[in-house]
């Protein structure tokens, strides 16, 4: 029988209340880790996610914890055999270990023994997001952990670094997540004071409009902005439709050869589990 280290809210609060800041570090080029380290006290806890080699190029010295997202085959870094590549960036007494999280009911935990000697705790966030997140999409790890931390009502400040939801030349964003919903939610949280955001996303570009037109109600500014954005989106969709038509042959060619691509370990696992 598998045994998982699932803590209740009170032990989590006791564990995390010792830190003045809890910094969620996104795997994004928008992260300026040197600036964070220089501006924040040594009592800050840095929360990293999954493939940390996207933001770290040397072992991290300081209070840290690694959040490992689960998939249907367990923690992704485990079944992809990346545990060693990720954990080499951490060590010592300041490393709290791994927090293996699941967000969807299809996701499964990995046992502590699978994390190559690192202390592991397990966090089930499926119920928290069940009636909140848009149907048909899956929350990102960063969004889920940020919401969970805010609900804990910790004495320290929660700071999100690099949560831009923007695709870069190096790293892509996945369509399985609702990036628009997450950005709206997080920015509202930030403006309410529940969290803080770094990376140029915490300042509204429309705040200058409210200052320039103080006689105009905020709802009118919002409606006008929505009207303009709707028109631009319609124009964009027209261009996308044109591109879809032009690339029809290329996509048919690509789909044909994808049928001959060997099955992944995940696909084989899912097929075997259905037998």
Task: Give structural attributes.
single chain; 275 residues; alpha/beta; 8-stranded mixed beta sheet; 11 helices; 8 strands
Structure description:
The chain has helices at about 10-15, 35-40, 75-80, 85, 125-130, 140-150, 180-190, 205-210, 220-245, 250-260, 265-275; strands spanning about 20-25, 45-50, 65-70, 75, 95-100, 120-125, 155-160, 195-200. With about 280 residues, it is an alpha/beta fold. Strands 1, 2, 3, 4, 5, 6, 7 and 8 form an eight-stranded mixed beta sheet that branches. It is globular.
Q: What is the total tally of β strands?
A: 8
Helix percentage: 40-55%
Q: How can the largest sheet be summarized?
A: 8 strands, mixed
Strand content: 15-25%
* Uncertain runs: none
Give the helix/strand class: alpha/beta
- Give the H and E element order: HEHEEEHHEEHHEHEHHHH
- What is the average of the pLDDT values? 86
Radius of gyration equals 21 Å
Shape: globular
First and last CA, distance:
21 Å
Q: What is the number of helical segments per DSSP (H or I, 4+ residues)?
A: 11
Describe the structure concisely for a colleague.
With 275 residues, the chain is α/β, with parallel strands linked by helices.
């Amino acid at each position: 029988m598998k045994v998982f280290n699932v803590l209740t809210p009170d032990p989590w609060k006791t564990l995390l209340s010792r830190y003045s800041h809890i910094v969620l570090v996104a795997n994004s080029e928008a992260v300026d880790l040197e600036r964070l380290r220089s501006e924040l006290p040594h009592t800050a806890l840095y929360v990293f996610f999954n493939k940390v080699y996207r933001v770290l190029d040397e072992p991290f010295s300081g209070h840290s914890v690694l959040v490992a997202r689960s998939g249907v085959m367990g923690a992704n870094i485990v079944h992809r055999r990346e545990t060693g590549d990720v954990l080499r960036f951490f060590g010592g007494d300041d490393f709290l270990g791994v927090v293996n999280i699941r967000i969807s009911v299809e996701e499964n935990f990995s046992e502590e023994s699978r994390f190559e000697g690192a202390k592991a705790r397990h966090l089930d966030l499926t119920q928290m997001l069940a009636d909140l997140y848009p149907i048909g999409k899956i929350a990102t790890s960063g969004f889920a952990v940020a919401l969970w931390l805010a609900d804990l009502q910790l004495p320290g400040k929660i700071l999100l670094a690099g949560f831009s939801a923007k695709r870069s030349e190096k790293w892509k964003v996945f369509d399985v997540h609702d990036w628009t919903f997450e950005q709206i939610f997080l920015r509202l949280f930030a403006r309410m004071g529940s969290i803080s955001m770094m990376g140029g996303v915490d300042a509204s570009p429309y705040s200058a409009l409210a200052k320039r037109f103080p006689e105009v109600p905020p709802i009118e500014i919002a409606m006008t902005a929505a009207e303009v954005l709707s028109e631009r989106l319609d124009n964009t969709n027209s261009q996308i439709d044109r591109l879809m038509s032009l690339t029809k042959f290329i996509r048919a060619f690509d789909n044909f050869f994808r049928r001959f691509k060997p099955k992944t370990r995940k696909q084989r696992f899912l097929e075997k589990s259905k037998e």
